[in-house]
Amino acid sequence: MRVSHVITRLTVGGAQENTVASVLGLQAQAGMQVDLITGPSTGSEGSLEHAFLGCPERLTLVPQLVRPIHPFADWLALGALTKIFRRTRPDLVHTHSGKAGVLGRLAAHRAGVPVIVHTIHGPSFGAFQGSLSNAILRAAERRAGAVTTHFVSVANAMTRQYLAAGIGRMDQYTTIRSGFDLAPFAAARNDPGLRARWGIAPEDIVITKLARLVPLKGHTDLWTVAPSIVAQNPRIRFLLIGDGKLGPEFQYDARRRGLARHFIFTGLIPPDEVPSLLGITDLLVHLSSREGLARALPQALAAGRPVVAYDCDGAAEVCLENKTGFLLRAGDLAALSARLLQLAGDPALRARLGGYGQSLVSRQFALPDMVDALRRLYLQLGHRTA
Question: What tens digit of pLDDT does each residue of 292-301 get?
Answer without folding.
Answer: 899 999 999 9
